[in-house]
Write a structure and sequence with these properties.
Blueprint (H helix, E strand, L loop, with lengths): L27 H12 L21 H10 L4 E2 L2 E2 L4 H8 L7 H12 L4 H7 L11 H13 L3 H10 L11 H8 L4 H10 L6 H10 L5 H10 L7 H11 L6 H9 L6 H12 L8 H15 L12 H4 L5 H15 L6 H14 L1 H11 L5 H28 L1
Antiparallel strand pairs: 1-2
């Protein structure tokens, strides 16, 4: 299994790409749980037709009129014409869907419609509400089971973790969704699974981290950055940092943005090894390596604290880790580094890792052959000098 610390934040640029790789290594207990989830057959649920339809209230005529207009737009297997004005009016309507609880009865009726177009329209809004009751949640799972449109199924089924299914006594329904044959559903589901962190959701995420589909694995890794950085979540993240496949850099990037104690230093240590093998850190992987380094060197910026007290919430990276990170940043930005994207994105990491020491390499990079590197280095050098000037002025001001 993958229990509580503080809320984490997903780092920037967290959309992976590239072919599938081997799953991450896992501890004995985590492997056992994950294997059990991966090999167990889907839970035997009641037939969708046997699940009673709940009463959810009357529909909103204004929403129905808007939907009727959207139905006039061209519809193909790929969905509605994205440039059709009535469809755009439906998708971008600001007021009718502002309170999703009030709009829900109408959207629920559309989801339950035999008209595929109405179901496609309904799923474009933020549903279901997290506070639906047991009967409604159970019925929605039944709708997912019988849904013939893969996109509708993926969006509705994938969104079900926003509801506390375990609290409602629907853990088996949650297990069934985790084994759904629609890989896109499992990917959305994996990302949202820890909306409610408990033994069942942690166990299921352990299985999804070893899903046969790469995109499901990547979204499960990203899902670890949502909510509380509990002991179980942090242990799972540490296992992901040990990956040896093409999702390793992505896992490093996600782990670097979390609040797991000491994990930023572990990410930097892993990047230090990666820096010894430039060929393993290029293209999208190189981008993620550079972003992971920048995220790790930022330390904890206290972004989850009230802005009025944010300065007191900040936790800088330990000096030894920062110096090690600075060494990696210098390696990534070296003119001889083979991947230009890695070089450019690592420029900012120099200042985050060691603002004072960054002045020298940034000065050199302002004359780099790569125009983008020169531009970034010039910008960051000005910032480093500004920070240094502020530090010199501060004691005089305090007198």
């Amino acid at each position: 299994m993958i229990a509580a610390c503080r809320e984490g934040h997903a780092p920037e640029g967290t959309s992976p790409a590239a072919p599938s790789g081997a799953p991450a290594p896992a501890s004995a207990s985590a492997s056992a749980s994950a294997s059990a989830v991966a090999s167990a057959p889907p839970a035997a649920l009641a037939s969708p037709s046997a699940v009673p339809r709940p009463a959810v209230g009357p529909s909103n005529p204004a929403i129905l009129r808007l939907a009727k207009g959207a139905l006039s737009c061209k519809f193909t297997k790929d969905g509605f014409d994205a440039e059709c004005p009535p469809y755009l009016a439906w998708r971008d309507e600001p007021k009718l869907f502002e309170d999703i609880g009030k709009a829900w009865p109408t959207l629920f009726g559309m989801l339950d419609s035999p008209d595929e177009r109405l179901r496609m329209l309904a799923i474009k809004h933020d549903i279901p509400p997290a506070d639906i009751d047991r009967a409604t949640a159970q019925y929605l799972v039944a709708l997912v089971q019988k849904e013939t449109n893969a996109y509708v199924a993926s969006q509705l089924g994938g969104a079900m973790p926003v509801v506390d299914m375990v609290k409602l006594g629907l853990g088996e329904e949650l297990r069934a969704l985790a084994k759904h044959p629609n890989a896109s559903l499992r990917a959305v589901f994996a990302y949202r699974l820890l909306s409610h962190q408990n033994a069942v959701t942690l166990e299921l995420l352990g299985g999804l981290l070893q899903d046969p589909e790469r995109n499901v694995q990547s979204q499960a890794i990203l899902g670890l950055s949502r909510g509380k950085a509990s002991d179980e979540v942090c242990a799972a993240l540490r296992e992901q940092v040990k990956r040896t496949d093409d999702l390793k850099a992505y896992a490093l990037h996600i782990a670097a943005g979390t609040k797991c104690k000491g994990i930023k230093g572990e990410v930097i240590a892993a990047l230090e090894k990666t820096a010894e093998e430039p060929a393993t850190c290029k293209g999208d992987l190189g981008t993620k390596c550079a972003l992971a380094l920048r995220e790790a060197c930022k330390g904890d910026l206290g972004l989850d604290c009230d802005p009025a007290v944010r300065e007191t919430c900040k936790v800088p990276l330990p000096e030894a880790d920062a110096k090690k990170g600075f060494g990696v940043a210098k390696r990534f930005t070296d003119p001889g580094w083979p991947d230009k994207n890695t070089r450019a994105l690592a420029v900012e990491a120099l200042g985050w890792c060691d603002p004072a020491a960054a002045v020298e390499p940034l000065t050199a990079l302002t004359k780099d052959q790569d125009e983008y590197v020169r531009e970034l280095a010039t910008k960051d050098l000005a910032l480093m000098k500004e920070i240094a000037a502020q530090k010199k002025e501060k004691p005089a001001t305090q007198k």
